[in-house]
Automatic annotation (TrEMBL):
<comment type="subunit">
    <text>Homotetramer.</text>
</comment>
<dbReference type="InterPro" id="IPR029058">
    <property type="entry name" value="AB_hydrolase_fold"/>
</dbReference>
<dbReference type="Pfam" id="PF00326">
    <property type="entry name" value="Peptidase_S9"/>
</dbReference>
<dbReference type="InterPro" id="IPR045550">
    <property type="entry name" value="AARE_N"/>
</dbReference>
<dbReference type="GO" id="GO:0005737">
    <property type="term" value="C:cytoplasm"/>
</dbReference>
<keyword id="KW-0963">Cytoplasm</keyword>
<dbReference type="GO" id="GO:0006508">
    <property type="term" value="P:proteolysis"/>
</dbReference>
<feature type="domain" description="Peptidase S9 prolyl oligopeptidase catalytic">
    <location>
        <begin position="569"/>
        <end position="777"/>
    </location>
</feature>
<feature type="domain" description="Acylamino-acid-releasing enzyme N-terminal">
    <location>
        <begin position="349"/>
        <end position="504"/>
    </location>
</feature>
<dbReference type="GO" id="GO:0008242">
    <property type="term" value="F:omega peptidase activity"/>
</dbReference>
<dbReference type="Pfam" id="PF19283">
    <property type="entry name" value="APEH_N"/>
</dbReference>
<dbReference type="InterPro" id="IPR001375">
    <property type="entry name" value="Peptidase_S9_cat"/>
</dbReference>
<comment type="similarity">
    <text>Belongs to the peptidase S9C family.</text>
</comment>
<feature type="domain" description="Acylamino-acid-releasing enzyme N-terminal">
    <location>
        <begin position="103"/>
        <end position="337"/>
    </location>
</feature>
<keyword id="KW-0378">Hydrolase</keyword>
<protein>
    <recommendedName>
        <fullName>acylaminoacyl-peptidase</fullName>
        <ecNumber>3.4.19.1</ecNumber>
    </recommendedName>
</protein>
<dbReference type="GO" id="GO:0004252">
    <property type="term" value="F:serine-type endopeptidase activity"/>
</dbReference>
Length: 778
């Protein structure tokens, strides 16, 4: 049967009045019978039984789908193509060349990852719509692309939830920030628009049918550039859904020379070359943030610029009944973050909570009665454990719900290790907060009962290496999950009255497994610390032997590797390498005593742990102990440079990204406290601290440069020209010393910052790294 021809004949018989109608018309068309079904909850949606997707039930859309390649294959009994096809199979490292490395990179780099989600509940209580925002590398254009997807969730008679895709993915890369109002009736978008080579920021407001307004923020000229991401960024609808709260740079006078002839008031002469301190790495254009509100109906912008000049506000949310705003304020000297409440009527500010702690992520319960936020110790090592604090908004009384855990027992809950709470983290009754936290070498989902302080682990699938909560709506939890052999996919869980999740349902039926990869978490107990452990995740090609091993310690040093989908480890394995991701003592997710045990011992304890893990892994049957490689970035590069200096005959090759090599000369970094605290020189750091000569000697003794004369390992350096975290001079110093010693070395420099995460940079680096490793495996 020719579906399109039969459908066209049938439509012509019915006359023009039927062409845009739903259900009754297409149900009577013989060409659509058997594979097309109605969706009871929405007369405008149809469901294809063969392709398992939904779409708008217009006759034109149905005809278009019926002739699609995907539908034709499904009608013939063929399954639709999975997101991850069988990836390029290589016959060992010897076969690697630029062309097949590039082909492999293209294949794996196109895997998207969910970044955000919004849930809209149906009025009948039997359906929900899940909107998800995804990010994917566009290697051709050298940028991250964004797209959104929509899925309809339906409950069957047994109350089992299933999902159907609605339409196709839609690119939304120009949408920098997006926020839905609480009811789901309105959507706000900060859009990037390029005209005549100039980029502008436009604020847009939409209802469910059309665009309501579009505001050119540059033309209004009420403030500087809106903060698009990072520490300060906010984008929040008011409870009344008539205003939007966001963060932008404070409007500044135009900088000009003393000799400028203009007399305009907006020009400030003599400031052309005046230095202004920014907020550092990833915030180089952020100097003085201000809170702003825009009225949806009048487009009037109000800048809340009457706060103290030494406070930089961010992470702002509306107070209940929109009587004020709550925000985190950062002081410039010292770098301390406090929680502030600004009340509109009295034009006054007040602090909330403990002013001696660093506070972030304020979140209100749906009824506005309860505020929660994260707080941690001020000073000391970065990424310490957080406390979850509950605040009764009426009385402003606070209570610590989850405290730090110094020494967890075995694999029990180690404490809270996360950078921020989900924007929507409360269940419908306001009694439970749902969040993701680092738990040893994984990220897990937990539910925290605010009334009893009880913690329930909601992620119970051991094959998953990383769970990230995207949003919570009533009793529905949306999360993105993945593993080192499974691509990111979105699941929805239903939270029950017993403080648990009944089941997790994937919104897509695709098989997300990445073929040919195995991973294991190895646990170590150092002999000198009986109550502490550390872990390393071994990732290998399945059923392969004689594998070269890439030992990879993380940066930080107080961060960690998770066992979720990661581009480089998976690519390395597909190229024929095994990878060892080392979470040495000092990594987050293992308790506070473990994390702080590294302070004052960098260059010793962490080097010992990495080498211990490497030597144990080298004894495994699938690993060739004569083909050991080490790789790392930042503090991981620090450890790699230490390893090739302290164990020069153990490794065959090395590659480092923006490594720290000499603590004593690490001037100019945007985190000057780091070297003082981690080397054990100064614990109570302040910006007025100046290291003494004995302090600099102690820093030198903990640095890789102390051992550089021992290095014989060929080393590749990958450096960012715009790195203000670890100045490029650090890596160049080690590189030039190795060249002078006759050690094979090579250096690539990129127009990027510390993370070296630009799409084109990331791609070029990988090819260079693999070719370097291959060169010295022979």
């Amino acid at each position: 049967m020719n579906d399109k021809a039969d459908a066209d004949k049938w439509v012509m018989k019915q006359g023009p009045k039927y062409k845009q109608r739903y259900r009754k018309e297409w149900e009577e068309c013989p060409a659509f019978r058997g594979w097309l079904a109605p969706v009871a909850e929405n007369a405008c949606i149809a469901f294809c039984k063969n392709c398992k997707i939904t779409f708008t039930a217009k006759l034109s859309d149905i005809r278009s789908h019926s002739t699609s390649r995907k539908h034709q294959k499904a009608m013939q009994g063929q399954l639709p193509r999975k997101r991850m096809s069988t990836v390029l199979r290589l016959q060992g490292i010897e076969s690697l060349d630029v062309s097949n490395i590039v082909s492999l990179y293209r294949e794996i780099a196109r895997v998207p990852e969910a970044r955000d989600a919004f849930v809209h509940l149906g009025q009948d209580g039997q359906s929900l719509t899940v909107h998800t925002l995804w990010e994917v590398r566009d290697v051709e254009q050298g940028e991250q692309a964004l797209f959104c997807r929509h899925h309809l969730g339906l409950f069957d008679e047994q109350n089992k939830l299933s999902f159907q895709a609605v339409g196709h993915p839609q690119e939304c890369s120009s949408e920098i920030l997006t926020a839905f109002s609480q009811s789901g009736s309105y959507k706000a978008v900060l859009r990037k628009v390029t005209k005549k080579g100039e980029t502008k920021q436009m604020m847009e407001f939409w209802d469910q049918n059309m665009k309501l307004d579009s505001v050119d923020l540059e033309a209004v000229n009420a403030h500087g550039k809106v903060h698009e991401s990072g520490t300060f960024s906010s984008f929040s609808w008011s409870n009344s859904e008539n205003q939007l709260l966001y963060v932008a740079e404070k409007k500044q006078p135009k900088r000009a020379s003393y000799f400028c002839r203009t007399e305009k008031e907006e020009v400030e002469k003599g400031t052309e070359f005046l230095h202004r301190d920014s907020w550092g790495e990833c915030h180089m254009e952020h100097y003085q943030p201000v809170l702003c509100t825009i009225n949806v109906y009048s487009s009037a912008i109000n800048v809340l610029d009457n706060m103290p000049e030494d406070i930089s506000p961010g992470q702002a949310v509306w107070a209940p009944e929109d009587v004020g705003v709550l925000f985190v304020g950062w002081e410039g000297h010292p770098w301390k973050s406090r929680l502030y409440y600004y009340e509109f009527e009295t034009n006054s500010y007040a602090t909330i909570g403990d002013t001696n702690k660093s506070i972030c992520s304020p979140r209100f319960s749906p009824d506005g009665n309860t505020l929660v936020y994260l707080q941690s110790e001020f000073g000391g090592p970065h990424f310490q454990a957080c406390q979850l604090v509950k605040c009764c908004w009426e009385t402003k009384q606070t209570l610590i719900i989850i405290d730090r855990i110094n020494t967890p027992v075995g694999n029990e809950f180690p404490g809270l290790y996360l950078n921020a709470l989900p924007q929507n983290c409360f269940t419908g009754d306001g009694n439970t907060v749902v969040l993701s936290t680092c738990w040893h070498s994984k990220w897990e989902v937990i539910g925290v009962n605010l009334n009893f302080g009880s913690i329930t682990k909601l992620s119970k699938d051991e094959t998953v290496g990383c769970w990230q909560v995207l949003t919570v709506k009533e009793n529905f939890i949306v999360a993105c999950i993945s593993a080192l052999n499974s691509t990111p996919h979105v699941v929805v869980g239903t939270f029950t009255e017993t403080n648990d999740v009944r089941s997790w349902t994937a919104i897509e039926p695709d098989d997300n497994k990445v073929s040919g990869i195995s991973w294991y978490i190895l646990q170590f107990s150092p002999p000198d610390e009986s109550n502490m452990i550390f872990e390393a995740t071994l990732v290998t090609p399945k059923n392969e032997t004689d594998l070269p091993l890439i030992v990879w310690p993380h940066g930080g040093p107080h961060s960690s590797f998770h066992a979720g989908f990661q581009l480089y480890p998976i690519l390395f394995v597909k190229c024929g390498f095994a990878v060892l991701l080392v979470n040495y003592r000092g990594s987050r997710g293992f308790g506070e005593d473990n994390l702080k045990s590294l302070v004052g011992k960098i260059g010793q304890q962490d080097v010992f742990d990495v080498q211990c893990a490497a030597e144990v892994a080298a004894q495994r049957d699938e690993i060739n102990p004569d083909k050991m490689i080490i790789f790392g970035g930042s503090h991981g590069g620090f450890l790699a440079c230490h390893a090739i200096g302290q164990f020069p005959s153990f490794y065959r090759a090395c590659a480092v990204r923006n490594p720290v090599v000499d603590l004593s000369s690490m001037d100019g970094t945007d985190i000057p406290d780091w070297r003082c605290v981690e080397s054990g020189v100064i614990q109570d750091y302040s910006t007025s601290c100046v290291p003494e000569p004995k302090d600099l000697e102690q820093m030198w003794n903990k640095s890789p440069m102390k051992f550089v004369k021992n290095v014989r390992v060929p080393t590749l350096f990958l450096l960012g020209k715009n790195d203000v975290r670890v100045p490029m001079t650090q890596g160049m110093k080690f590189y030039k010393t190795l060249l002078a010693q006759g050690v094979s070395s090579q250096m690539y420099t990129y127009d990027d910052n510390h993370a070296l995460s630009k799409v084109n940079v990331e791609a070029d680096m990988f090819v260079n790294i693999v070719l370097w490793f291959k060169r010295f495996m022979n």
